Amino acid sequence: MKEVILIKNGELALKGLNRRTFEDVMIKNMRRRLSDLGAVTFTPAQSTIKIEGEDGFDLDEAVERISRVFGIAGFSRALKLDKDFDLVLEQTGSYLEQQLLEAKTFKVAAKRSDKKFPFDSPKICLELGGKLLEQFPHLEVDVHNPELTVMVEVRDRDIFVHANQLKGAGGMPVGTAGKAALMVSGGIDSPVAGWMMAKRGVELTAIHFASPPYTSERAEQKVLDLLKKVARYAGRIELTIVEFTEIQEAIRDKCPEDLFTIIMRRLMVLCAQRIASRSGCGALITGESLGQVASQTMGAIACTDAVADVPVFRPLIGMDKDEIISISRKIDTFDISILPFEDCCTVFTPRHPRTRPKLHDVEAAEAALNVGELVERAIENVRKVVIN
Ligand code: ATP
Ligand code: MG
Fold it and tell me: Cα(30)–Cα(51) distance, rounded to whole angstroms?
């Protein structure tokens, strides 16, 4: 028995050239994701991409990984048969046994792109439907709203049999919407923000600010572990770790305490956009959500954006914490995010941060720092780690 995966891109609204690029990028992403599972071929034909591995290919694992590739709305596991209708009658019942046992109602649908095949669609449905009713007497046919649709596709070379589609990750293939730098902390929000932008087709690179000795190696490991989870969806992510201690100490020593956070965030953005542009990114991504903390008020965000010369994407801006948490559970980052290691944002945090900072006050306070030099030194002092 030969089983394959069929990716349907039928719903794709894109047409023409866009569609080709979209499909090419998606195949490239899937190929990378499955590369260590052995030899596998991807065959695009008739708005379907067929994925077929050599003998011994771990299809369960492949299905699991494919379910996290963006750009795929739905896909199926399918039985591949030679073009002999008797084989369909013989093997469909056992191939779909579990699903046929669980369903109460079903129908057979057929698609015949090879018009020379001696059985037309109505005949396929009638014959296979009758056979399945014999094998599974508890079933009833419901052509309008069946629990299970058994699909028979007669293609040029093979016949494929499959049942209800599995849900894909949706979104757009990573890489079709450019590249952006995720500012990632060890918290709940930023990994979710990265996942959301990757879902829209953005390739991710990541930047993390660490403040040793105030922050520990375990805090850094936490960021790596979080990005590993995000990379299961987003693909390869290069992480740049920036040493932020000197900047934080300078702000603590020279700026008013109630402006500490906002000035720190502006320096983070200044460093991040320099690193981002070096790696070809067109935007920054943060996990900010309006009003969640003092540095995420409209005024504070305006002060941060005033130093940004690229767009700052904040996909969580209108989301409640419980909505963010439910995504973080879904992508399996939540349990890592809640581990209790110090982040550089929690070091030196003021007791009473200003919630309505005025840009001119912030700029005046910042004048006590040598911002240009601090940023320059920080971005020279980085480490890079690749997460696959
Ligand atoms: P998160 O859950 O992502 O940590 P948060 O609610 O704790 O977010 P803040 O600590 O104010 O909020 O940080 C807001 C955003 O700033 C984060 O979502 C992240 O994008 C960025 N950020 C915060 N700390 C760091 C850091 N150490 N390195 C890189 N980016 C950071
Ligand atoms: Mg945080």
Answer: 9
